Amino acid sequence: MPSSSTSDQSHPVPAESFQPVAAVLAAILPGAGHAYLGETRRGVLIGAGVLSLFLGGLLVGGIGVVDRRENFIWFLGQALVGPIAFGVDYVHQTQFKIQEPNGRVRVAAPDEGRGPDGRAVRGEAPPYERSLGRVHELGTLFATVAGMMNLICIIDALYHTPRRRAAGGGAW
Amino acid sequence: MVTGGVLLALGAGATAAWRPFLDPLNVHELWWALLIPMSLGISVVYKAVRLRTLERYWREVAIMTTQIVLAMILLGLAVYVFVEVYVRWVAEYAA
Q1: CA-to-CA distance for A79 and A67, rounded, in angstroms?
Q2: Chain B contact for A63, CB < 8 A?
Q3: 8 A C-beta contact, residue A42 and residue B57
Q4: Contact, B54 vs A41, CB < 8 A?
Q5: Is the distance from CB of A142 to CB of B38 less than 8 angstroms?
Q6: Which of A142, A169, B33, B61 has the highest CB neighbour number within 10 Å of its CB?
Q7: What is the pLDDT of residues B65-78, one digit of tens each?
Q8: 10 Å Cβ neighbour count for A12?
């Protein structure tokens, strides 16, 4: 057990501890790592912030902003939000893209819809409206920034320094 | 003005059966306003991690959000001046 260093006897500086379980939980669900470490309010705020950024990106740019096939580099950042990013991408790839007979998966053209088997259907509306220009860029950026911020939280949970509690005590 | 623009965007999407989180918002004219919710989200997460105590949390979040927005505006102005004044002067001088 690491001992705490002291700057002076009245204000001991808590030692940093290595918390891999908290880091894994933070990677699975934003904020769960800090809640596991007893910092419930921080965990709730982290979760609300990260998920708001991610869902905000989907709201602004639509489901097309999370695409590991066409925007792989950006998806690497989005994946840091956790399984929710992979889930959204899975839904995007399997439910909203055209599945060609040769196995290729692609975005529907503006004049083609998607049949129940995933094949293209000419003359129908596309399965979703794809975002373009700044709206697409900002939606992608929102979701990626969410992942980047969760990375900070994962690292903070992994190398955790217990914070001083407020005067009223408790986990807040 | 921002609220009206957002409502207009949502209304325009609603007539075409806009589906939230699937279809994009029609905010092409108000893209710059998205700086505010992004700055707020970044501040919420950053301060939740960095503050020793959460006693003045929301005040700190408001301050950081304001700092980010002002910094981005100043950065934009600086880049605008650089491109429209300095680069233009260099181009005219070189010619």
Answers
A1: 10
A2: yes
A3: no
A4: yes
A5: yes
A6: A142
A7: 999 999 999 999 99
A8: 12
CB contact under 8 A, B28 and A133: yes
Pull the structure tokens for residue A127.
């399965």
Residue type, B95: A
ipTM: 0.84
Q: Which residues contact B10 (CB under 8 A, 6 or more apart)?
A: B18, B25
* pTM of the predicted protein model: 0.84
Q: Give the integer Cα–Cα distance in Å for A112 and A52.
A: 32
How many Å apart are CA A27 and CA A83, to the nearest integer?
Answer: 8
Instruction: Report pLDDT digits (tens) over A45-66.
Output: 999 999 999 999 999 999 999 9
With vertex at residue B54, the alpha carbon angle to CA B51 and CA B58, rounded to the nearest 5 degrees, is: 95
The DSSP bridge partners found for residue A6 are A12
Distance (Å) from the alpha carbon of A1 to chain B's nearest alpha carbon: 22
Are B46 and A141 inside 8 Å of each other by CB? no
| Residue B12 vs residues B2, B8, B9, B55: alpha-carbon distances, Å | 15, 6, 5, 42
Euclidean distance between CA atoms B55 and A20, whole angstroms: 28
List the one residue out of A25, A23, A27 whose CA is nearest residue A86: A27
CA angle B1–B36–B86, rounded 5-degree value: 95
Judge whether A97 and A105 are in contact, CB under 8 Å. Answer: yes
* Closest among A43, A12, A5 to A164, alpha carbons compared: A12
Give the integer Cα–Cα distance in Å for B13 and B4: 14
Among chain A residues, CA nearest to B58: A45
